[in-house]
Amino acid sequence: MSPITKERLETIHLRMLPFVHNTPILTSATINRICDAQVYFKCENFQKMGAFKMRGALNAILSLPESERKNGVVTHSSGNFAQAVSLAAKNLQVPAYIVMPETAPIVKKEAVLGYGGQITECTPTLEAREQTSKTIMDRTGATFIHPSNDMDVILGNATAAMELIEVHPDLDWVLCPVGGGGLIAGTALAVNTFTDSCKTWGGEPLNADDAYRSMISGKIETNTNPQTIADGLKTQLGHLNFPIIQEYVSGITRVSETEIKNAMRLLWERMKIVVEPSSAVALAAILKETDAIKGKKVGIILSGGNVDLGKLPFQ
What we know:
Belongs to the serine/threonine dehydratase family. Helix 3 packs across helix 5 (80-91), helix 5 (80-91) packs parallel to helix 6 (106-114) and helix 9 crosses helix 11 (241-248). The chain has helices at residues 6-16, 29-35, 53-62, 66-69, 80-91, 106-114, 126-140, 151-167, 182-194, 210-217, 241-248, 257-271, 277-288, 290-293; strands spanning 25-26, 38-43, 73-76, 96-101, 118-122, 143-144, 173-177, 199-205, 249-255, 297-302. Strand 7, helix 9 (182-194) and strand 8 form a beta-alpha-beta unit. 51% of the residues are buried. By secondary structure, the chain is α/β, with parallel strands linked by helices.
C-alpha cells in the first residue's frame, strides 16, 4: 500500500469534489447539554444517494485506468453501496453491474435501477453473490469493487472526516458506526493524518459486535445471524481495513437495540433530521460515553439517511 499522506488524501478529495456534496455540519444545544460536550454532526444523510458510501464508490471508479473503466464495474450489495456504485458510475458514464439477493426490498431495487445500475439477482447467500459477480466479470471484463474492503473505497470514505476536521481542527474525538469497516478505517486515516491528538472511536450494535470482539482477539471475528435493526452494520471487517482499525481506532462502544432507537428518535425530535438505524448507532455510543467526553469537542459522522419512513423503529 502506498503511504497515506496529506497530499494523497487532498488530491483524492479535490478530484471528487465535482461529484459529491460537502455535507453540512449541524449542532444541537439539547444534545450538547445531554452530553455536557460540544457535538458536531457531519450529516452524510444529506449526501448524494443518501449515504457516505457515495464517496468510496466514486473514488474507486475514479481510480481505475480508462482501459478498465470502460468495461464497467460490478459489486454485490442489497443496500446503500449498490445505489452508490450505480449513481457514481452513471455520473462517470461507466456501466454498473449490481448483484442483489432476490430477497432485497423492491424499493432498493428500484433505487438502483433509477440510478442506472443493471441488476442481476441471486439467492441470498454470500457464495451466490460472489459467484454471480465472478460470472459477470468474466463475461464483461468489469472490475469488482468491494463495499468496504477496498483501499480506494476506504480513502474515498476518509473525505467525510477530512471535511469535518477542516471546519473543526481541534476536535478531541471523531466517532462513526462500524459495519464492514470501510468508514471507520477511512475516518481513522483522516484523523491520524490531519490531527495531532484526536481519537477515532466506533459505535457498534451489541447484537452484531464482531468488530469489538476482533479488537480484543486480534483477529477478524464474525457474527452468526445477527439480529439488529442496524441492518447496514451486519457485515464483517476485511483484511485491508482491519489492520488500519487495529492501529488507529482507540475503541468501540457497543449499544443495545433500545439505545439505537432512542438515539434515532432524539435526532428526529431535536434536530429534525432522519437517519437510518445504522447511523444512529454513532450517537447512541456517544450517549454511553458522556463521562469520557465531558467538556470535549466531539465529531459524529451520521453515515446515512435511507430509511423506510413507514417503518420507523421508534413508532
